[in-house]
Design goal:
Blueprint: H1 5-20, H2 40-44, E1 73-81, E2 87-95, E3 104-113, E4 117-122, E5 129-135, E6 138-149, E7 154-174, E8 180-199, E9 206-214, E10 218-220, E11 223-225, E12 230-238, E13 250-261, E14 267-276, E15 280-288, E16 295-304, E17 311-320, E18 326-335
Antiparallel strand pairs: 1-2, 1-18, 2-3, 3-6, 4-5, 6-7, 7-8, 8-9, 9-12, 10-11, 12-13, 13-14, 14-15, 15-16, 16-17, 17-18
Length: 336
């Protein structure tokens, strides 16, 4: 039996609606690093990128967005200087074998370095504790992605990812000397993302939908928690389609996302990007409601030499993160 794009759309819509129901456990999720923005361009647009087509970085937001990869391969690396001196490192790579006739394959990794912490354990001595030395919490996710354009309008995509987080050592029994023995306090789980992207056919108007971080419950020791499950729908369009300007010289992308996360209230995300001659991009994004950060800004540069296949891009975003200070993201991309 032939599966049509409309049937897939209906099935994914039902999954997304079911996922969004009954998620009232606000602020009760773990592995929150999965919700941190991992691409400078996306963050500068308020992360309202569910309906935007792009390169390998799209798999971190809506994997269907990379289904029409313009190049044979696309590589992106992002360094995020996050709050509390937490470092995020993200790498993505996508391949389009046979010009994408069989879909687009992708791989990604996201590593988080929380820095060094001094460990202590409570014991019955003069101090009331013993010093067990420094420990280094970390987290990472690594996964594979697949996306395909089913026809000239409809694209689908999905991610399968292994997620692991370690909070350092914890007490586990006692040693011969009566002090607690230490073992790594870590947990891991498999998670999945599903997305669609639909070209409406009305000028450049796109519609997108994605469900991210779908998994079973995980736990540390005795306490269980869910991953930050997230459901988004979005629309985007180059509004200069209504203006008689040369499309290769100017573009003004306007994008909106509505987000229903598991662990906080619904939000509206919006972004604006002006592109000049496919070389310079100026961006601004807003998230509402948001108590600590609301506005983001960014710039992008792209260069592809005449007669050569390789293209290079650089993107930067700046977010004022309330009491935590400023957050900077840098993304370097190479297209082949």
């Amino acid at each position: 039996m032939r599966i049509t794009a409309h049937r897939i759309l209906i099935v994914l819509s039902v999954i997304a609606i079911w996922t969004a129901q009954g998620q009232q456990k606000l602020a009760q999720t773990g592995m929150k690093f999965l919700s941190v923005g991992t691409d400078a361009r996306a963050v500068a647009l308020g992360e309202a990128v569910t309906s935007i087509e792009g390169g390998s970085a799209a798999m971190m937001y809506n994997p269907a967005g990379m289904a029409r990869l313009a190049d044979r391969a696309d590589v992106n690396f992002c360094n995020l200087l996050y709050i509390a001196d937490i470092q995020h490192y993200v790498g993505t790579i996508a391949f389009a074998p046979e010009h994408g006739d069989y879909g687009v394959l992708g791989l990604f990794v996201h590593y988080v370095d929380y820095g060094a912490f001094q460990g202590t354990v409570r014991v019955d001595n003069e101090k009331g504790y013993i010093d067990v030395g420094a420990f280094y919490p970390y987290a990472f996710t690594v996964g594979a992605s697949y996306a395909r354009a089913l026809n000239d309008k409809f694209s689908i995509g999905g991610n399968a990812k292994y997620v692991r987080q370690s909070l350092g050592p914890s007490a586990n029994g006692t040693t011969a000397g009566g002090y607690p023995a230490m073992s790594e306090n870590a947990t891991q789980v498999w998670a999945f993302d599903f997305g669609i992207l639909y070209r409406t056919g009305f000028k450049s108007l796109n519609f997108g939908m994605v469900v991210r971080n779908f998994s079973q419950e995980v736990k540390y020791e005795r306490e269980g928690f869910q991953l930050p499950l997230d459901f988004k729908i979005g629309v985007s369009m180059n509004v200069l389609d209504f203006v008689a300007l040369e499309k290769t010289d100017h573009a003004l992308l306007v994008t909106f996302d509505a987000e229903h996360p598991r662990d906080f209230a619904e939000t509206v995300r919006m972004g604006l990007e002006y592109q000049l001659m496919d070389f310079l991009s100026l961006r601004v994004g807003r998230v509402s409601p948001q108590s600590e950060y609301e506005w983001s800004y960014g710039i992008g540069l792209r260069r592809r030499a005449d007669g050569k296949t390789m293209g290079i891009s650089f993107d930067y975003s700046y977010t004022k993160f309330g009491l935590f200070g400023n957050v900077h993201r840098f993304t370097l991309g190479v297209a082949l």
